[in-house]
């Protein structure tokens, strides 16, 4: 098909995929699982009744379950797609209802804290394979998802050493069939890498938009009026979901603080270069950073998904 996802699988990889939390990521998974035939049956649960109604309306799942306990019954793959801070409680709730051999996974943006919260809550007869698709937009909710969100993007798996490699391979096959490139790494390493490539950049965006909005000499209307350039790109990132990002910063505290320390030192060095009119120093850094951007574009990593979400109103009821 023209969407780049390739043909449907002849045999589904799983009998029943249960998604807990059906916002941007959960609904994108539902869409791609349905489009590619990754599971024979898709069951969805969200703790927000309005989201459940929307998931029904958009026909994103075969069954929209009224409770997490019911939703996981019969599942051989359960993926937790709720905010990072909710994962531990969800694991406790579903634990007694998971059949032996079930694979439980997640999509949280932080890995070590999720492993600490989820793994001890699960019974010994299930397998937990933490995952993080490094793909998203600033939009939330079930209408904002799309089937190609994960296409040619990375999905990082962070299994603990006690997990059977064959189980990890099944989760890897799931994400590969959804279009992602899969990489396996330790949770602590994941959290450090994502702190600098995703979490600190979001914090910088939240901060610069907040600072500009607070300036007494620049009125709010001027901030909006003149935000056609660099500032506008920051406002896109700073529009990201407040619950999701609060939970990320609270659960990746030490890595973010470590990277923020380095960032602050480098920022002060730049401030010094400007004060001392060190044009060569500034020119050297800007040349190096331009090369990095060009490298990302050459490797085709800038954006693999269509431009959906960029400038499209949040939560429009589009059919899957
Ligand atoms: N948005 C991104 O760019 C992105 C990218 C990769 C990973 N993630 C991760 O994916 C997860 C979901 O993010 P999203 O962007 O889809 O958020 P979202 O806000 O669009 O969706 C989250 C959904 O979870 C539901 N929810 C909250 N608590 C719940 C609970 N206890 N039980 C059941 N449902 C519950 C909410 O009602 C909401 O519908 C987060 O952990 C986030 O860190 C997000
Ligand atoms: O593209 C965006 O809008 C995103 O913020 C996506 C992004 C990122 O920082 O790359 C955000 C958080 C996720 O954990 C993974 C992806």
TrEMBL record:
PROSITE patterns linked to this entry: PDH_ADH
GO BP, one annotated term: tyrosine biosynthetic process
Pathway: Amino-acid biosynthesis; L-tyrosine biosynthesis; (4-hydroxyphenyl)pyruvate from prephenate (NAD(+) route): step 1/1
The reaction(s) this protein catalyses: prephenate + NAD(+) = 3-(4-hydroxyphenyl)pyruvate + CO2 + NADH
Pfam families, per database record: PDH_C, PDH_N
Domain Prephenate/arogenate dehydrogenase positions: 15-304
Keyword flag NAD: yes
Family of the protein in this entry: Belongs to the prephenate/arogenate dehydrogenase family.
Protein name: prephenate dehydrogenase
Organism: Beijerinckia indica subsp. indica (strain ATCC 9039 / DSM 1715 / NCIMB 8712)
